[in-house]
Structures are given as C-alpha cells and as structure tokens.
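seq as requested:
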Amino acid sequence: MKNAELLQKKSDKTEKAEIRKEKKSLYEIFTEYKTVIYSSVFFAAGLLCGALLYKNCRTDALDEIIKTAAGNDFLNLFINNLGFYFLVFALTVLLGICLVGFPIINAVPLIIGVQAGLEIAYYYLNFGFKGFGYCILMIAPFVSSFLTVIVYTVSRSAELSRKIYDLTIGKKDTAEKIEYKKYMKKYLLYAIMIVIVALVNSGITAALSGIITIG
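struct tokens:
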C-alpha cells in the first residue's frame, strides 16, 4: 500500500515537472521567435492600415502613383523597388545603431505592410477578384521575400541596439564587447539579398507584363 502511494506521489511529481518544463519550453519558443512574431503582427497591422487608407483616401492622384510605381519598364521598376527596399533597410540599420532603437525596431515591418496594403486594395477595389489574383501571383511572392530579409535585419539590429544600450547605460556589469565587424558583414549580406530581390522582382514583372495583364 505504501509502495503504491509512493509511486503515485512520484508520478504526480513527474507530471508536474513535465508541465513546468512544457511551459518553459513554450516561453523559450516565444523568446526565440519573438522577432518573427512581432514582425508578423506589425506587418498584418500595416496591411490593414494600407487597405483602409486607400479605401478612405482613394483619389486619381493616388491611383496614378501606384500605377506608375507598378509600371512595365524594367529600369523604372528596379529603381522604384530598390529605392523603397533600401529606405526600409536603412531605417532598420539606423535603429540598430541607435541607443534606444530596440524597443521600436520590431515595428519596421508596419511600413512594408502599409505599402503592400495600398497596392492590394488598389488592385482589388479596381479589378475585383482578378486584381486579387494578380496580387497573389505578382506581388505577394516578392513582398514575402523582402519581408523575410527585413525580419533577419530587424533581429540583428535589435540585438545590436540592446548591446549598445547595455554598454552605454552600464545596466549590466557583464555587458559583452560589441563585434561591429560581425554586424557589418551581416548587413552587407542582407543588402546584397535586397538587391537580388529587387532585380528578380523587376525582371519577372517586366517579363510577364505582356503575358499576365489586368484591366
């Protein structure tokens, strides 16, 4: 009888330990992927803001801007795409070397969401489901590619900004020395990836403009 009770107590303790371990694992998962989670939330919020912005502020001038930015000429497409991509990238890097950049840096994908939301709303409201299908084929893949690069950049920049804060404020006695070369190499790699995304985006859009048409 006593042995049975002891076994039951051990079993209960094991179950409780496993539950605590599971909770800790979930917390660790969130901590590990918090940049992806935050970025996804802000991107989704940006999509909604962009769609609502277009719906409520729809004008011929705004339509012309979106049409011009999504033209069929490769060079114009490349300049427009690269300009926007590097603007967002530069902002992310600047926040990374800023003392207080880490609290707000995860909001950067909001900008990408607003831009994508404007385009999606433009095509959907003007061309219906055909326009929505066009967005899935011609816009979504490149937005996803660019967003992926920016999420990695946000992660590195948040880490760098936090280290700068710790070293400057002296909050942590064991604040580690910052290896700026390592971060510069990462930023250079991300910049190259952004150029590639802009090239592929512009090239495919220009090449398929005569095949996939809308309107």
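The two ends are 81 Å apart (CA to CA).
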